[in-house]
Amino acid sequence: MAQWLTIIGIGEDGYGGLGEIARDALARAETVFGGKRHLELLPDTVAAKRIAWPTPFSDAYVMLLALRGQPVAVLASGDPMHFGMGATLTRYVARDEMLILPAPSSFSLAAAAMGWPIQDLQMLSVHGRPVETLFKAFTPGARLLILSNDGETPARVAGMLNACGFGHAQLTVLEHMGGDEERRIDGIAHAWNHPRSADLNVLAVDCGVPGPAARIYPLLAGLPDEAFEHDGQLTKRDVRAVTLAHLAPLPGELLWDVGAGCGSIGIEWMRSHPTCRALAIEANEKRQGLIRRNSSALGVPDLQLVRGEAPGALSGLATPDAVFIGGGITDANVLQTCWENLKPGGRLVANAVTIQGEMVLFEWRNTHGGELTKLNVSQGQPLGNFDTWRAALPVTVYTVHKPS
């Protein structure tokens, strides 16, 4: 089919900033979709029917696809393929059926305004996403460009930085870049006194040097135990690092964290890459609250909590690339249900601290193969005027790959 859909990136300079190909596409279009603000930028000479994005937004795809084969144009901010409408529409429309005409993205304009090389930055978006995802990006010397959700985002981020010990971080709000209403606001996180900015803004953050009490955690597996709020049901740091090494997260993969406790394994899985996903399956109501608070505080609020007890709670869940069983290994059918639902080629890792749990894993290995690892961890602690080694309970780690 010919290219019936044209996705046009448009900036604050409006129709006047569009190239000849984009203007020709608008002249030919019978229907133009876009935000109300974008549609108002078009002159009366564009005769196409104008449709503002509906609520709920998901209805837009049905409306647009119903016009398949007719000349349709879509207006999107800046570069439609960078956190934009173009990236979403590629899931519904074949590439050879559409023409994508990008304008300079908000990030490109912001980097130019700040004089920051793009290759040295983290480009993030909290537009329609939880702002808590930014917590894991707050590191010494980091420079961030953040596509805000609305005018309250800069003030919220300033408060988050201050709470994390980055009170001296420098913030710059860039509003309506490239338009007549363009404005720049500069300030420091701990003294930020701008409760609301324009809804259309990009926030630039130079994290700088944190304070002595700053909360700074690496993305490498094995966060300190004190990073998590817990009730004792926590996979300890050294064991957690080894467990995650066996789970071996890859971008875009989904983990089932069965018997999640305070959520530490699923949280660290998701911190390893922005596209990693995790389901935390937990029956205890208080621990469910811990999972929620920990996932937000550690920058992965999208971790999905499944309230219930395995194996019943596992029914109907998305198929996992990897499974970790941290609790309930001796419960009837938990291991079998996880194995049956695991993708071919996926990994299953299970930890046991009891003899009964070890026996289950030993028998499973005899049937399905895999490897068993015994971890004995001791920490130096005082004993009177001397020091000694205090051993934690030994942990058996079982790892197996499901045949492809």
Short structural description:
This protein has 404 residues and is of the alpha/beta class. Helices cover 25% and strands 25% of the residues. It has a seven-stranded mixed β-sheet, sandwiched between helices.
Explain what the structure shows.
- The mean pLDDT is 95.
- It is globular, with a radius of gyration of 26 Å.
- The chain has a 7-stranded mixed β-sheet with strand order 13-12-11-14-15-19-16, with helices on both faces. A 5-stranded parallel β-sheet has the order 3-2-4-1-5.
- It contains 11 helices and 19 strands.
- The chain has 404 residues and is an alpha/beta fold.
- Helix 10 links the parallel strand 14 and strand 15.
- Helices cover 25% and strands 25% of the residues.
SSE topology:
Elements: E1 5-10, H1 20-28, E2 31-34, H2 36-39, E3 49-52, H3 59-65, E4 72-77, H4 85-89, E5 98-101, H5 106-114, E6 122-125, E7 143-147, H6 153-163, E8 170-175, E9 183-188, E10 201-206, H7 237-247, E11 254-258, H8 264-271, E12 277-282, H9 285-297, E13 304-307, E14 322-325, H10 334-341, E15 347-352, H11 355-368, E16 371-375, E17 378-383, E18 386-391, E19 395-401
- N- to C-terminal distance: 37 Å
Sketch the major β-sheet. 7 strands, mixed
- Strand residues, percent: 15-25%
Shape: globular
Spatially, the strands of the biggest sheet line up as: 13-12-11-14-15-19-16
Helix content: 10-25%
What is the tally of beta strands? 19
**Structural class label:** alpha/beta
Average residue-wise pLDDT: 95
**What's the Cα radius of gyration?**
26 Å
By DSSP (H or I, 4+ residues per run), the number of helices equals 11
Order of helices and strands: EHEHEHEHEHEEHEEEHEHEHEEHEHEEEE
| Poorly predicted parts | none
